[in-house]
Structure formats: C-alpha cells, structure tokens
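Sample intake — CBM20 domain-containing protein
Collected from: Thermaurantimonas aggregans
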Amino acid sequence: MKNTILIAILFGTSSLYGQLRTVTFRVDMSQQTVSTAGVHVAGSFQNWNPATSQMTAVGNGVYSFSAQIAQGTAIQYKFINGNTWAGEEQVPSACGVSNGFGGFNRSLTVTQDTVLPVVCFSSCTTCQPLPPTKLVTFQVNMSNVANVSQMGVHIAGSFQGWNPASTPMIKSGSIWSYTVALPVGQTVQFKFINGNAWGQDETVPAACGMGNPVNRFLTVPNSDTVLPAVCFGTCNTNCPVIPPTPKKAVTFRVDMSQQSVSSNGVHVAGNFQGWNPAGSTMTLDTASGLYVRLDSASIGDTVFYKFINGNAWGQDETVPAACGLGIPSPNRWFVMPNTDTILPVVCFGMCGPCPVPQPRNVTFRVDMKNQTISPNGVYLAGSFNNWSPKATPMTANGTIYSATVVINSGTTVQYKFLNDSTFTGAEAVPPACGVSDGFGGYNRVFNVTNDTILSAVCFSMCDTCPAQLPTSKVTISVLTQGIQVSPQGMYVAGTFNGWNFTQHQMNLVSPNKYSITLDLPKGEQVLYRFSTTNSPAGQELITGSCGFLGSRNLTVPTADTTLPDVCFNRCDLVCTSFSIDETAYSSLKAAYRNRVLSISGLPVGGVPSKLKIIDVSGKLIYSVDFHSTGTFTSPLELISGVYFIVLQIDGQIKILKLPVAFY
C-alpha cells in the first residue's frame, strides 16, 4: 500500500508558527469614571493607537476586546480610559515591563487562543472593595490677599494628583470652598493656590503643615466635615483685610507678519491672567498690522508673559534668552509702573521689531529614477508650507522632479520629498543628511540666504542616484498548507523594498499557493521573508539550511528565473511530498549510540544511496552519498532532540524518525 506523506506533518506544532490566534483583553473600570469616548486597548499588536481598538462593556464595569494576533508574537499593551494617551493607565512595575520612558506596559506572548484574566484599571489584580467615604469641605479666607487672581482660587493635593488647575473653589464673599468625598482614615496633603499654576501656591507655615515642602494635611474622619476657613498662607482663621493694590492699564503688542497666523487667533498669556493660553485674545489692528491687547496689572508687580500663535501651549513663541527670564524656557517680563503703559512692539519669537523680509526663490529637486511613481504624483512638504502633503506638487523633467518655493532670507527650513500626496509615501531621510523630526525619523534641512537651485538628490538618499543596475524578473512562490493566511492576504518583504510588508502583495494562483514576480538587480544579494499578513507580525523565521539571519537568501541570476516552490517557514525539503512503499525496506532500523549513527536493514550489493539528517526546524544537519552494503555506520555529533533520516535508495524514499537523548 502506498501513502502520500507531507514531511511538514512530522514537525508537529512547529508548523503552526504565524497562525492567527484570538486574544481577549479584559479590564475592570468599576472604580473609574469612564470617559465619554469609551475604553480602549492600545499595544504593539495595533501600532499603539489609543483610539482604534474600542472595548465593549460586558457587565459589572468590565470591558472586553478581542484581537487576532500571530502565534509566537510577544506583545506589550495597556488600557486607555478614553481615546487619547491622556487617559492611559499607570501599569504597576510588579506586572509590567519597562516602556523606556519611566513607565510600564503589560506584556504577553501569544501561544494559543487566550481569554486574559480581568484586571483592575492601573492594577495587577482584580479590583478590591473601596473603603467608605465622607464629605470634606475645604475652606480658605482670601481677605488677607491684596489681589486675588483673575483665574480664581484652586486647591491641589494628594487626593487629585497635585494638579494646580483642575480643582477650582467656589467663592462666597472672601471665603472660597471645595467639597469632595474622601476615604475614611486616609491622610491627605493639600494647599491653596491663588490662581491655577505652581508659583501661585501659598507658603504653608510648618506649625500647621507637614512634609518638605510643607503642605496642609488632614486625616479623614468618620463623619462629614466642614473644615475652618484658614487665612491663605497662615495657620489662623482671623484674617486681616488687605486692600487690593491699585492697577494700571498695560497694552501688549506683537508683530505676526512673519508667521502663518493660526485660525484660533493670537493670544497673550502670563502670570497676570493665570498663564491661560486661551484666555486673553489679541485683536488685529488693521491700521498698524499689529496684534494688540489692553489689560491691567498691579503696580509694582513683575509681570511675566509670552505670545501664543493659537490658543494652546506648544503654539507659544520661543523667547530669546537675551530678552527673557526663566529656565529652561525664558519668558518676556517687565515691572508694572505707576502709570498706564504701552509696551514696545516686538516680533513674534524675537527681542525687537521684525526685520524687513527678503523673499528668495528656492528650487528643490529630487531624482526618482529608482522609484515607481505614485499615480498621485510627487510632492514636497516642509516647515514652509505647514507640512501639508498636498500643498506643493513637483514637476517632472525626465526622472528629476522640482518645485520652486518663495522663502524669506535667513529662514532655516526642514523638508522631505513624498512619493504620493500623503505621508505614507514620505521618503526615509538618512541620518547623515538629516535632522531629527522628533518621531524617530529625519528631515532634510536648508538655511535660505539667496536665490538657490538645490542639487538633485536621490529619493531617500543623501547624494545623487547611483547608476541603475540591469534587472531580472524573478518569480517566487510559497505554499501555505496548514497555515492560516489573514484576510489581508500573503505578502513578501526584504532588502529589495526596505522590509516594507505592505508594498508587495502576492497573488493566489492555486489553492494554498501564492506567487509574485519581482524586478531585482542582477547579481544583487537579496534577503526576504514571506508574511501571512500586511505587517511584520505574520512574518516567517527561517532557521533551516536555506536561511541566513532568519531570512531566505538569493543571489539574483542574470536571466529571468522562476524559483522552486517553498513552504512557509520551512526550507525546500520540508515541502516535498514523498511516495513511500511501506513494504519496501520495512526492516530498516536506525540507532544512535556512543555518538555513532547506525542503520540496519539496508539492501546489499552496493546499491547507490543518499542519506540526509534534518532537525525539527528543517535545518540540514548531515548529508552523505554511499553504496549500500546492508548496514551503514558513521561517527556523528548530535545533541538531544528529534531528527528525521531521509534515505533515497535506488530511487525510492524512506523516512525514519530518530530520537536522541543523553542520560
């Protein structure tokens, strides 16, 4: 009787590498105020996007999300209360791995379909019952403060994360109060803030405080409590009344002529208004072209401030140290005089007036000869066009694409070329000719001085393009018996495409067989891997005799070539089907003792034979041609494990399993 046996079956579970498994993540949010944006999970398995993997409420405060992840993948992840990183949980070190930024992530290696245990948000275990709470009303009397901030009075403490701006108090005359439920028996520290920023907080006397620096404190009693109204910055409740310091008008002025003004307008922020970047809008004076705001400050106060091109931090100007005070980020400043004041005009981000602009024509050029041009064309994006990927299309002259942009002299610009109208087609600028973009990559940089036509550089390179090598068409195919291919399909990536697993999708040409034809430079050494999806998560790892550094290895031939079919995650031999006559050579036996391989039951008479030994990963361990004389012996160094002996005798194939163990 004859049976057809795939040798891949002999390798057991190792053939499951890359198979997709269902992993169900679960988190208990019963002790959290859940965001209106929902609960999400983010991790390495989905590119750390806090908004794409929303979890579903399944009852009792528990949220769940299931993902398909390739078997053998080691992942890191964490839960998000909301859909931005502002709501990420704080994973304890006891159940986390370092994220490289001082915090921790949860981790898992996928081995099978898994439903993870329910954990409490920001905890290693299930949620523990919360202690009982009581209402505590904090009060402060501000009558001893000459000027109460326009931003009001706030309280900050251990019970709310020491945030000076998140907990405003309610005013009633000179008394400001705030009520919150706190766990009975818990000792909390706190202080009052005349405004909403550190530097505006009270100095607590040691006589009624604790710690260093000194804070007020309270051990929460077992009943609702209204604390006495203490005077700001004192231990007393009998507060003197201090009249407010007189104020005078101050006019802020800034020249924005060298900026692209934000659609959110221009603002000024400083200690006179609580450092609120959106609270003090400036008005465009059409006669002078300046942005102006009339405000007030107390006589004798040192006023710190800066201008904002927009209404949020991150859009504020960088004040030069020559006209600023403060570390690490200087602010503009002045001492408020005893008269109304109009401040001098300054250029945004400069100490004095704006210099007269001197526009220059800069022509950027890129050589695309080694690229397949996107149907959407080639574009230029940079700091001069607000990094818009569609704003500056480039014009082709042969393989050279160019675009001319008007930029003021003295401006340093960063930029990069795009082989598309989105950033998915952005070039990878080498570090040798780039500056950090703050996201792990690099931008090109140029300082504008005169009208300039830049030299044409090769896309994603520092210099001109090398001579283009002649290519051969190489057809590669992979067999996927027993492997689960994702709905995205089968892909191949390698040194020929910068290991981009989204670029080259293979075609399904027959059941369990995928194929693709590539144009590759003749004579080039190419490493490549197949993937069961359009990301590295599904890639194979080659450890057999056809592998190099975990990849397949090819020297591109000089003529068009179709390579033999290979099996996913295996070398050629593992994919071959053999027809075995089970009655032929049924007496064959193999043994390994004292580091000597012996095979008995072979035919006699000098029959031409070939022997190969492979391990469970498909790696060729030993190979020899011999003439059979009934037995075969050979010294051989093997380690403990399972091996397979493939015998080819007079045109027939016989496979023997050889377990090796040392005791």
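Post-analysis note: The chain has no helices and 52 strands.
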